[in-house]
Design goal:
The chain has about 110 residues and is mainly beta. The protein has no helices and eleven strands. The chain has strands spanning about 1-5, 10, 15-25, 30-40, 45-50, 55-60, 65-70, 75-80, 90-95, 100-105, 110-114. The strands form two sheets. Strands 2, 4, 5, 6, 9, 10 and 11 form a seven-stranded mixed beta sheet that branches. A hairpin with a 6-residue loop joins strand 4 (about 30-40) and strand 5 (about 45-50). The model has no long low-confidence stretch (mean pLDDT about 95).
């Protein structure tokens, strides 16, 4: 399974961005996809995840501001980020989870200026 993210960039506080993530390869084995982020000097943390059945999970810090969704094909997920804050600045990583392994993308930088 290969995972590729896109959509990062620079935005002012209060603005919005949408990240995209597409998985390819043995996508029939994927049961969950998610977004994580890592800020400088901090550990990677979960932002949001979505299962094949559409069940979602969000970090408390982004609840009510971010929305994760997937296409019917279920190998593409989006992260709509609204009301962005400077503390949302990080490298955002997408992953695709199967029963046996988790596959990661290369990450996309999101920078929120104050």
């Amino acid at each position: 399974v290969q995972v590729v993210e896109s959509g990062g960039g620079l935005v002012q506080a209060g603005g919005s961005l949408r990240l995209s993530c597409e998985a390819s390869g043995s996508i029939f084995t994927i049961n969950t996809m998610g977004w994580y982020r890592q800020a400088p000097g901090k550990q990677r943390e979960l932002v949001a995840s979505i299962t094949n059945s559409g069940r979602t999970n969000y970090s408390d810090s982004v609840k009510d501001r971010f929305t994760i969704s997937n296409l019917n094909a279920k190998n593409t997920v989006y992260l709509q980020m609204n009301s962005l804050k400077p503390e949302d600045t990080a490298v955002y990583y997408c992953n695709a989870g199967t029963w046996y392994e988790v596959y990661w993308g290369q990450g996309t930088q999101v920078t929120v200026s104050s």
